[in-house]
C-alpha cells in the first residue's frame, strides 16, 4: 500500500483512526500521516500499531517499504514470538537517584553472569533518514507518533529524561535512543526500561538487539550484588579514556563520571596502555600467515588484560582468539574450553543468533572440523629463552 502526503494530510487523530478502522485487515491503528520533499525519494510517514506486544503499542517513523518490512518480522506476525518479552513484574532492580547522573537502577537481589535483567520491545522505531524532512515536518511525525501510543504506554515515554531541553518529544528520543539494525538498515529505537540504565565504561551488564522479536535483551555479565548499580555501555569502550569521554560528550551530551573516567591520571595511563596492548595482541592473533607469531599464550595474556580492565562483555572476543589459537595447534580440549566460554559471553553481548556464536558452538562440539584446526601445527609455540647465550 502506498501513502502520500496528499492522501494523509490534515487528518485529526480521530479522523486517522476512523479511516484506518474502515479498511478490513489494515495493519495500522491510524491512517499514516506522511511528508515528502525534493530531498526525499519516498514519503516518510508515522505508522502506529496499538495492539503490538500485547497492547504496549509501537510507532514507526519511516518509509512505507521499511514499515511493511518490519511487519514481516515474527514480532508482528507470530503471536508467540513475544511470550518472554516485556515481563516487568517483580523486577530484580529498583530505581535510585545518583548525584550527577540522574536516575539509574540498582540490583535488589544477586544477579549472576548470564541472568536476564529484562527484555523489552521499543515504544518507537525511527529511520535516521527522516532527517531529510524539514524540521517542523519531522517533529510533527514524532509528536503524532507519541499521541498514537496506547494511553497506558504514553506515561512511559513522558517519564524519559530530556537531557537537551529542546523539543520535548525530539529531546526524549535523542537522549534515550539506541542505534540498531533492521534488515541491513540502521534505525533508532527507544526502550523505556533500558533507558533507565546509566553508562559505565566498565559495565556489569550487556545488551543486544534481536531483529526477529524486535526486542532488546539485557543480561548481567558478572555477579552484581544487591545495592550495586546495574550499568551498560553506550559506546565502544576499547579506546583511551580521552576518546571515550569525547564520544560521550559529543553524542550523548554528558561528562562521564564512571570510575574509570574519574580515576587518577596515573591509573588512567595504565588503563590506556592495556587498551593499546589488547590492540597489539589482537593484530598478532589475527595473523594467519606462515610467519605468524601467534600462540595460545598470547591469547591467554589477552584474556588476562581484558579481565584486569573489567571489560567482561568483550571477553567473548578474547575467548574466541584463545579457542582458535589452541585449535590452530591441535589442542582439542583447550579449544573446546575456550569456545564454550566464548559462546557464553558472546551470547550476552551480540545475541543468540550471532555468527561468532554459531562458529564457536561448532568449535565447542568438534574443533577438528573447524577451519583453524592444526593451521599452525609445527610452528614455534613457546619463546623459552631471551635470545642470548648464557
Ligand atoms: C538513557 S539516560 C539514563 C537514565 C538517566 N540517568 C535518567 O535519569 O533518566 C542517559 C542520560 O543519563 C545520564 N548519564 C548516564 N550515564 C552517565 C554517566 N556515566 N555519567 C554521567 N551522566 C550519565 C546522562 O544525563 C545521559 O544523557
From TrEMBL:
Domain SET positions: 91-235
The species this protein was found in: Pleomassaria siparia CBS 279.74
PANTHER family recorded: SET DOMAIN-CONTAINING PROTEIN, SET DOMAIN-CONTAINING PROTEIN 5
CDD domains, sorted: SET_SMYD
PROSITE patterns: SET
Protein name, as recorded: SET domain-containing protein
Domain of life per record: Eukaryota
One Pfam family from the record: SET
InterPro entries, per the entry: SET_dom, SET_dom_sf, SET_domain_protein
